[in-house]
């Protein structure tokens, strides 16, 4: 089982030089001018040309060899349980495998697969606090797992949300996976959560596993959660007219997941773009689930939305990074000064017909990952899961 990766033990300075392309993660300016990034003590301190930034005193120097540096990918919808193990598929090291797919941050949509998951109020609150504490202490491979997302039940009162928030809980599991499946009750509890700084997500579409149920547009709109979870279904999507109604009827996050209906994902993307609301679109996998674990799920979503959704690749990467970071109030996901130094370094896959990484993704190919970095520390080098990259970065000094 993968355990937490080493942390920096003293002052650190990372320099990534000879970068061919910097993807910012920001829709308003998805490509940055520069060939060098500097990070000190886990935070980005400079982005620009090598000759213009201070690289003295580096503790780690990476020669990117002309490859692409992007923010570490964020999976907005996972279902962790305990450490790097999932009982849903009885697999270990699934989070570490996601790291090899470029994912450096994960957001729990509820620890619903916990064997014997308590459904009484005391038990579900205790499990949420435990999950939040455990995953922030243990970071498999260095991946930041924001967990502790209770599945709400009808017996809960406002004081329960106040208590959870005071103990570090910042997320709700998918509304609809527990006993709360109606609009009025959901709206009341989502309001309590929001009052105490807890973000909310709702299950959207048909039942995904035994215990879940249909959540249609009326419930979604009345509940008014911060994120419309898997609007493209998990797996079964709502009809197009209901999806459009949700897109137009609220201004909350529109989450597209790998384990959903691909046609509905493309329909949602087109609708959001027509509305000028691409900033609302974020990406997740909704795994582990009945369809398994998808280490390359976020990359596959980026490639699918770009190639079939006629979306420039540099914009598609924003949906998996900066959009989610801003919506989830995270300090990663964007390459800008002051943000966490979480990066994925990539290049077009060997033998892809694309002339460069952006064209290859636009043609539907996955990039090859050569390195992941979290908090300014190299976590992986050549990915064991992606196609081999045409060029790979190299640690030249440490």
UniProtKB/TrEMBL annotation:
Any one annotated GO CC term: cytosol
Highest rank taxon of the organism: Bacteria
Cofactor dependency: Zn(2+)
Short name of one Pfam family: Amidohydro_1
MF-aspect GO terms: hydrolase activity, acting on carbon-nitrogen (but not peptide) bonds, in cyclic amides
SUPFAM superfamilies: Composite domain of metallo-dependent hydrolases, Metallo-dependent hydrolases
InterPro entries, alphabetized: Amidohydro-rel, Metal-dep_hydrolase_composite, Metal_Hydrolase, Metallo-dep_Hydrolases_sf
Domain Amidohydrolase-related: 263-361
Protein name as catalogued: Enamidase
Organism: Bradyrhizobium forestalis
């Amino acid at each position: 089982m993968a355990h937490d990766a080493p942390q920096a033990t003293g002052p650190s300075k990372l320099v990534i030089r000879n970068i061919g392309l910097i993807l910012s993660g920001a829709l308003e300016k998805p490509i940055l001018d520069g060939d060098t990034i500097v990070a000190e003590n886990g935070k980005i301190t400079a982005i620009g040309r090598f000759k213009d930034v201070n690289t003295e005193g580096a503790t780690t120097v990476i020669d990117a060899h002309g490859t692409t540096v992007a923010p570490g990918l964020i999976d907005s919808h996972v279902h962790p349980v305990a450490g790097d193990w999932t009982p849903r598929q009885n697999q270990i090291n699934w989070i570490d495998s996601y790291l090899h797919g470029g994912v450096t941050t994960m957001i729990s949509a509820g620890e619903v697969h916990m064997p014997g998951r308590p459904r009484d109020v005391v038990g579900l609150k205790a499990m949420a606090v435990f999950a939040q504490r455990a995953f922030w202490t243990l970071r498999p491979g260095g991946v930041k797992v924001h967990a502790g997302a209770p599945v709400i039940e009808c017996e809960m009162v406002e004081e329960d949300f106040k208590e959870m928030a005071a103990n570090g809980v910042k997320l709700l599991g998918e509304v609809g996976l527990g006993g709360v499946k109606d609009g009025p009750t959901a709206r009341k509890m989502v309001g309590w959560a929001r009052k105490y700084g807890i973000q909310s997500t709702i299950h959207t579409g048909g039942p995904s596993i035994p215990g879940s149920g249909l959540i249609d547009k009326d419930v979604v709109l009345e509940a008014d959660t911060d994120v419309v979870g898997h609007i493209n279904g998990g797996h079964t999507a709502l009809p197009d007219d209901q999806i459009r109604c949700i897109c137009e009827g609220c201004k909350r996050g529109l989450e597209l997941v790998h384990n959903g209906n691909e046609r509905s994902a493309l329909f949602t993307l087109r609708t959001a773009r027509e509305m000028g609301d691409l900033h609302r679109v974020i990406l997740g996998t909704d795994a582990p689930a009945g369809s398994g674990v998808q280490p390359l799920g976020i990359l596959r979503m980026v490639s699918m939305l770009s190639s079939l959704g006629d979306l420039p690749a540099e914009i598609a990467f924003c949906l998996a990074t900066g959009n989610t970071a801003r919506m989830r109030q995270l300090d990663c996901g964007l390459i800008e000064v002051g943000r966490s130094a979480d990066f994925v370094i990539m290049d077009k896959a060997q033998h892809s017909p694309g002339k460069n990484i952006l064209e290859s993704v636009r043609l539907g190919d996955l990039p090859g990952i050569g390195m992941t970095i979290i908090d300014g520390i190299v976590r992986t080098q050549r990915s064991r899961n992606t196609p081999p990259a045409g060029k790979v970065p190299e640690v030249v000094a440490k």
